[in-house]
Amino acid sequence: MLKMSLSLADLASVRFAISPAWEVVASLRVLRDPGAHAVHLPWVTRHRARVLASPDLRQLRDLVIAPGRHLPGFLAPAPHSPVAEPEAEFAAVRETPATVVREELASVYGDRLPASLSDLRRAPRRNLPMIVGQMRTYWSLTLAPYWGRIRGILEADVMFRARRLADDGPHRMFPELDPAVSWSDDVLTVDRPNLDRDYELGGRGLVLVPSLFAWPNVFVKASEPWAPVLRYPTRGVGSMWHTPSPAPDLAPVIGQARAALLVELATASTTTSLARRTGLTPSGVSAHLARLVTAGLVTRHRAGRLVFYVRTPRADALLRE
């Protein structure tokens, strides 16, 4: 059982963030043991054989798949922004200090470091670009084609949790993250096998990261020098690989662009995310959303610095007809 004591300063600094680098790490762990992650089997079937056989991903596999419980912390640092960009996170990995890389490798592997990682331990700064290159390759092959939909699911979770925190406080929001998570007397507890440690966050705050590929587990990183982070299974994970029934063709009535936006807004999304998924310009998306909000088909909600849009029941009824 892991416990984190949060001061008032920590609670005031709780924030949500989406991390592409973490999805790289978590999805690779899914490929290691697909039977424990049955909800992702459609994705596993498409990518497992190729990833596990590729000589171009060997070092990344040995960093992520080989370890038992713990993972090298430098592979997925806590995001600095609410919706981190893949390249920004890969750059942060590349800039990890050499001493931190060596300490993490020693902590995870002890004297059983895979031979493929010996160069990384000997010269971290020289070899981190190779690891980042493999992360980028893996991302492009297995996650980038689905990122628009994954990001939409994660953004919807952030909106829901942030509103819950604002409306009902931490005593209601924290336990809803996962059945293993509880909150009492300013202590956040994660009841998971092999987790047995107490942390005083000491004003460092806490980053809450919803994750598609974490399901059904909760992951915690709270040791210094890292920013404390808790990764939990996102809401809506079961819908990721489900192909919805075709929606009625509303394009002749409201226009092709607005009809496409309504279909995408089954989960809450930001203007930027919608622009990427539909191919529309951000300014065009904003203009269409304004009309849809006026028509009562879309509603907007603010979560911190992000504004999310989602379909209303009225729009859902139109799409069912």
Automatic annotation (TrEMBL):
SUPFAM superfamilies: Winged helix' DNA-binding domain. InterPro entries: ArsR-like_HTH (IPR011991), DUF5937 (IPR045981), HTH_ArsR_DNA-bd_dom (IPR001845), HTH_MarR-typ (IPR000835), WH-like_DNA-bd_sf (IPR036388), WH_DNA-bd_sf (IPR036390). It comes from the Bacteria. This is MarR family protein. It holds the Pfam family DUF5937. It comes from Micromonospora chaiyaphumensis. One of its GO terms (molecular function) is DNA-binding transcription factor activity. Residues 253-321 form the HTH arsR-type domain.
